[in-house]
Task: inverse folding
């Protein structure tokens, strides 16, 4: 008989599966599953949230910029203006303490100019004049102090506001010193000193260093 003979128990050659061989097939790195990160709480396992990426930056944090130092000219302006305000307040206070003599003197001047005017009308006119003159000076000083405070905070427009307020303040001081001129010279001298301090205070305000400080 011709033909091929097969040995007993021999099997046909071919690929054998894991079930046939009983040994697990090797797995490559590409097919290997990633391990699961779990948190065991009690009897259950929960997936962890994905890790957040680190937030880092090479940029330095912003640094707050402060105001540049005030030049000596601006400080001199503020000091001279404060000196003038103190002198003006001293003059106004002295005039109020000498109010009786001041009213008598002004009433005598008004009666000499118009002898036919009633005494009540003269008294009312004197009282209104004192209130208007002294009150005007006090109001202008209060406004100028606000401008000086803003000036020191580097508000450029406050410099021009102070310059504009200076002119009516000087005129009011001139009128006030003429009204209070009489026996006691403390009030008049204090008002004149205030006017002089205000004029001097404007000189350093117009200097080059002061203008450069406001332009920064």
Result:
């Amino acid at each position: 008989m011709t033909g091929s003979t097969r040995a007993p128990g021999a099997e046909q050659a071919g690929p054998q599966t894991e079930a046939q061989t009983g040994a697990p097939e090797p797995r490559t790195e590409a097919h290997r599953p990633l391990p699961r990160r779990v948190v065991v709480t009690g009897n259950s396992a929960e997936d962890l949230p994905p890790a957040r990426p680190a937030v880092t930056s090479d940029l330095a944090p912003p640094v707050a910029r402060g105001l540049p130092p005030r030049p000596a000219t601006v400080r001199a302006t503020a000091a001279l203006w404060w000196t003038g305000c103190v002198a003006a307040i001293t003059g106004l206070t002295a005039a109020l303490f000498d109010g009786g003599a001041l009213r008598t003197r002004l009433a005598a001047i008004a009666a000499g100019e118009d002898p036919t005017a009633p005494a009540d009308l003269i008294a009312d006119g004197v009282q209104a004049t004192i209130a208007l003159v002294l009150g005007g000076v006090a109001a202008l000083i209060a406004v100028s102090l606000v401008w000086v405070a803003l000036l020191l905070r580097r508000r450029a427009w406050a410099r021009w506001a102070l310059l504009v307020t200076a002119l009516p303040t000087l005129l009011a001081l001139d009128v006030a010193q003429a009204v209070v001129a009489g026996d006691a010279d403390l009030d008049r001298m204090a008002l004149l000193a205030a006017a002089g301090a205000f004029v001097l205070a404007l000189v350093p305000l117009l200097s080059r260093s002061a203008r450069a400080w406001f332009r920064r």
